[in-house]
Amino acid sequence: MLRPWHLDDVDSVHEICQDPAIQEFTTVPVPYTKEIAEHWIRTSPLKYLEREKISLAGVRSGEIALSVSLHSIHEFDHVGEIGYWVSPQARGEGLATHAVEMLTDFAFAIGFRRITAITLPENLASQKTLLNAGFELETVLRDGMTRRDGTQTNSVLFSKFPKVKIAD
Ligand SMILES: CC(C)(COP(=O)(O)OP(=O)(O)OC[C@H]1O[C@@H](n2cnc3c(N)ncnc32)[C@H](O)[C@@H]1OP(=O)(O)O)[C@@H](O)C(=O)NCCC(=O)NCCS
After folding, report:
1. Residue 38 Rama label (left phi>0; alpha psi -120 to 50; beta)
2. Does residue 39 fall inside a structural domain?
3. Domain total for the chain?
4. From the CB of 91, is ligand 1 less than 6 Å away?
5. Within 13 Å, how many C-alpha atoms sit on residue 85's CB side?
6. Which of 129, 137, 158 to mutate to test the pocket of ligand 1 (most atoms within 8 A of CB)?
7. I need a surface site. Which of 4, 21, 62, 118 has the fewest CB within 10 A?
């Protein structure tokens, strides 16, 4: 189930975001403190109301399993970028793919016309997730990202589009 973030989720988010893969492959602040988790959760409804970001928690059996969000929204152009992480315990079960599909379906239903996702070149799990969720590999962005160690590297851009509606 995808739902808005609750303040009760702070401890779970704080614990999950200690994961080395999340710190390496996403832009979460490092070190990731409880205050950061709380600020992120507290500001998420405001960002939604300001049409800046849609940020949702994925819950399974009452536990936080994942985060999925649509950010870098440019409303005039009908575009946004998707980002996600899955808790280490919940990986390898297709949850990221399912969540990405749910959020992109919702985004297309409310009028988005292009959703992108950008990964580091070696983040094969994320790239597979995107392909499984119906994204296409669009291009490689030369020197498109900075690693945690400060070096610049290529990034890989994926995109997904709404299905064309055929008139009956
Ligand atoms: C990327 C991530 C979200 C995937 O979550 P998940 O729930 O395990 O993903 P899914 O189970 O939906 O799919 C993962 C796919 O990647 C594949 N995969 C996993 N590790 C892989 C690897 N090292 N090399 C190649 N494929 C890999 C899986 O086999 C699966 O594909 P399949 O179903 O066709 O077999 C998770 O690993 C994660 O949170 N990573 C750290 C944060 C991150 O990278 N976020 C994305 C930033 S762009």
Report:
1. alpha
2. yes
3. 1
4. yes
5. 21
6. 129
7. 62
